[in-house]
Design goal:
Layout lengths: L4 H11 L3 H7 L8 H11 L3 E5 L7 H14 L2 E6 L2 H15 L4 E4 L4 E2 L5 E5 H9 L8 E6 L12 H9 L5 E6 L5 H12 L2 E5 L7 E7 L2 E4 L9 H10 L19 H10 L5 E4 L3 H13 L7 H14 L13 H9 L2 E4 L5 H12 L5 E4 L13 E4 L3 E3 L4 E3 L2 H8 L11 E6 L6 H9 L13 H11 L1 H8 L3 H30 L7 H17 L7 H17 L8 H26 L4 H15 L3 E2 L2 E2 L1 H6 L7 H9 L8 H9 L17 H22 L13 H8 L4 H5 L6 H21 L4 H11 L2 H6 L4
Parallel strand pairs: 1-7, 1-8, 2-5, 2-6, 3-5, 6-7, 9-17, 11-13, 11-14, 12-13, 14-17
Antiparallel strand pairs: 3-4, 9-10, 15-16, 18-19
GO molecular function: ATP binding; helicase activity; hydrolase activity; nucleic acid binding
Pfam family, one: DEAD
Keywords: ATP-binding, Coiled coil, Helicase, Hydrolase, Nucleotide-binding
Length: 780
Amino acid sequence: MTLTPSQNYARTKSLGKFPKTRKFAESFPFELDPFQVEACHALESGKGVLVAAPTGAGKTIVGEFAVDLVIGSGGKCFYTTPIKALSNQKFAELTEKYGESKVGLLTGDTSINSEAQIVIMTTEVLRNMIYANSSTINELKYVVMDEVHYLADKFRGAVWEEILIHLSDAVQVISLSATVSNAEEFGEWLQTVRGDTEVIVSEIRPVPLYQHVLFGNRLLDLFGENLKLNPELTRLERDSYRQVRGNWRDKPKGPKPLTRSEIVEKLDREGLLPAITFIFSRNNCDAAVRQCLAAGLRLTNSQEKTEIRSVISRNMKNLAEEDLVVLGYYEWADALERGIAAHHAGLLPAFKVTVEELFQRGLVKAVFATETLALGINMPARTVVLEKLSKWNGEGHVAVSPGEYTQLTGRAGRRGIDIEGNAVILWSNDLDSTSVGGLASTRTYPLKSSFKPTYNMSINLISQFGSERARTSLESSLAQFQADKAVVGLAKQIRKNESVRDGLYSEAKCHLGNFMEYAQMRGDIKKLETDSKRSKRKRAEIEEEIGAIRKRMKNHICHTCPDRENHSRITERAQRLQREIDGLTERINTRTNVIAKRFDRIKVILDKFGYINNDAIAKSGKMLAKIYGETDLLIAESIQSGVFNNLSPADLVSVISSCIYESRNEEAAKVPRGDIQIALAAISKIYSKIHDAESDLNLEPMRAPDFGFCWASHKWASGQSLTSILKGTDLTVGDFVRSMKQIIDLLRQLRSAAPELQIIIDQALTKIDRGVIAYAGAAV
């Protein structure tokens, strides 16, 4: 039986078993929810906890209880977050509650009161402390891992698992996660590696969420009674898809869509502001703001405009006047005064922080944002709008997953302010309400590990535990835990897919002839058309091949079948299933001991390049242990080869940028000549040597150096202005600042790893940590 909060309190008081929980709960002006009370009980009982609950449900209260416990009884509590902006936010909250003397902040480039009882930090900082055997963790009692579902992140997820595996058993871990469908599996793994851990799952949103579709000018409910699709919506959609003169190629004739400014005005009339509109493109976010300004949209009154100006003035006082134009300051400030803003990674950090503050205060009413806003920043809205249900993932356009949809729409509904939240999907010719309904009602978004050993991780583990114990610890990873359990499930899925595939093939049989042959020709044309965009073959050759296949298709007996298009749709589904079956089969073949095998291969390379000798760590290995990042071995080898030894400070900044930067487009990089060119050629040669060794061992290769930021970073390190650097380039100020901060982080690592470079590194840091970069501080 689920107890109400009042019943739970009555029971707790009568038993008197959890006095610390009761005292903590009484400090709030509202009753805690049952899941929060249950989690606090578990903590007070000495257990670890995994709390999985929707966005805005109040998971962080459980983390704050751990903070309260050390304040009352001594020891330390570390509160970890995935990004610096979240660390800054939590630092401000806890400092206000407990006072400056008790709270510290560590984010790599910011260190405030690092020996405090409560320290907020990014996860990488704690991972590095564990590997360095830092004395700071000696009195550690609790670690809060906020947004722990980040361990699925392809690039950074391993850090969460490293901490959970290697943190002292004496430390209680509080893992806070968004709702995932395999919380019990994750909890089972935590129980294995961390000991007694209670799994607490809540699927109750504190503010109910209602789903809508904006069909032209009509705002329609997505669901009707019993969570079935709204029949009015499906009727309108069906009418829009009626064929014209029986030609299946004709596009559906839907209603004329509203402009972005008209959508905001409609939401305003319906009382649905403030709203966040998610647009999966930085340029389109900025374009949306410009469209609203051009339409004369104003969402603020004179008093609100005055308050907005005051916040802008306070937050922007350190900006250099000569940089204001290139930063787009005047247009940005004008939009803010009207209650409109963009929010994405291309903006100056100070701009993003200002937008967040004004939105939280209800002064900005309409924000156009990329999905990065859904990563835990405290910016809930009354309404969330999704323009599309697909996004560019760096390689192609992919559908938004159910988990991503839930994370994005989870921003809708402000606890204590709104009685409901609203998600609005914009209808388009590409939209299928059945798919949208499935997406909105799906509750299966499992947490999947992305853990894999790196060179740095492996050298640190060998240094700490020796090879055998290190290998065993890696076998304790969630990735291996899931791999071992998953093979049975994968085999079951293959059997299920094969059954459905065979049924589809049977359904697609044509009375005229072999429709599979005909479908294969259609598939071949589609593949050729797709390949033509990437292939180096001449377009004329591809067109000729397509023409020949089209000719064979027209001569095929099934081409005249009146039910041809229906057969085609069915066979396409069957072919998609076959591709999935092939992929699942390959996954089964690569599951067994995949983590340990990768570690063994990394060890071979570390031994080959002289970083270890059996279990003995060479001097170069101790250096590698202090270098974190995707190109760790490349940097270590470059130091070993003396690539950086004779460079000037500005040249060092330019060369080192190749190890952190990833270009957003395929344009050829502009590289300064002289010593920089020579150093980059040496780095390329070293990379080739590493790549060959990795290929020989069938090891996933390290990311290649990227020279796309060499010119800009060199100009900045040479004292040039931000305006002169960004003018005439596609580089955004947000990307520039973030890349420069990453260079600073890396240089600080190298300062510790390679003392012989300390003087030149200090000079380089002085040259680049200035102006807008210094002002950006820890807000990146």
